From TrEMBL:
InterPro entries: Hemerythrin-like (IPR012312), RIC_family (IPR019903), ScdA-like_N_sf (IPR038062). It comes from Capnocytophaga stomatis. Residues 79-230 form the Hemerythrin-like domain. Keywords: Cytoplasm, Iron, Metal-binding. It is found in: Cytoplasm. This is Iron-sulfur cluster repair di-iron protein. NCBIfam families: FeS_repair_RIC (TIGR03652). It comes from the Bacteria. GO terms for cellular component: cytoplasm. GO terms for molecular function: metal ion binding. Its main location: cytoplasm.
């Protein structure tokens, strides 16, 4: 990996184990993955050499995380739907139910729960709309690009002009979700339950943290791998 010149998103795309190190330093590798390490470290006043040394210490090989960088784009899009879109749809109802319960039982003593619930409810609504747009508009067009590339056919002409247009919208919506979950993480003190937390309280915070981690992986696969490759493929076919 070229740690000095590659963007953070490119580094994580090459080895997802790097994501844990960026997360440790509070560096967004998905929604803001277009920055270099130097830019991110300057913004957060982080010791750049220390961060780079930790990245260099990642063992060569033995990456147990699924490497999807070289997958065909239609396969990657299908994987995102099956693994990440399905996860979002499965977990949202449980989290909404648990957060409502926490607000009723603990809201007086922990008023921050009300804002957490509000933020997650907004996220749940927007994410479900976001997934539909990807599944019904963007991903089918990416599949058409792949077919044209494989069969030597004509480049499809979408009503939205170019694949870069819906991608720009999806990236904007990704950033909004990143900002929301940054606020949720702050309000929960890094998903740390208070001393008087009941089991439901602890389970809910653990689920929220898992949801955020899954969302980061989801956005990373799109922003740093699927989307730039789709733009490049469309240009190649023109």
């Amino acid at each position: 990996m070229n740690l000095e010149n590659n963007t953070i998103g490119e580094i994580v795309a090459q080895d997802f184990r790097a994501a844990a190190i960026f997360k440790k330093y509070g560096i967004d590798f998905c929604c803001k993955g277009g920055r270099t390490i130097a830019e991110a470290c300057e913004k957060k006043e982080i010791n750049q050499n220390q961060l780079i040394n930790e990245l260099k210490a990642i063992p060569q090989g033995g990456n147990e995380n699924l490497n999807v960088s070289d997958w065909p784009l239609d396969l990657l899009a299908n994987y995102i739907v099956r693994m990440h879109h399905s996860y979002v749809r499965e977990k949202i109802p449980y989290l909404l139910q648990f957060l409502d319960k926490l607000c009723k039982v603990h809201g007086d003593r922990h008023p921050e729960l009300l804002e957490i619930n509000h933020l997650f409810t907004e996220s749940a609504f927007d994410l479900q709309s976001h997934l539909e747009k990807e599944e019904q508009i963007l991903f089918p067009f990416i599949e058409e690009l792949v077919k044209a590339s494989q069969n030597g056919g004509k480049t499809p002409v979408p009503h939205f002009g170019t694949v870069a247009n819906p991608i720009k919208m999806m990236e904007h919506e990704h950033s909004a979700e990143g900002d929301r979950f940054e606020k949720i993480a702050t309000l929960t003190d890094g998903y740390t339950p208070p001393a008087d937390a009941c089991n439901t309280y602890r389970v809910t915070f653990a689920m929220l943290q898992e949801f955020e981690d899954n969302l980061h992986r989801h956005i990373h696969l799109e922003n740093n791998i699927l989307f730039p490759k789709a733009v490049a493929l469309e240009k190649q076919l023109q």
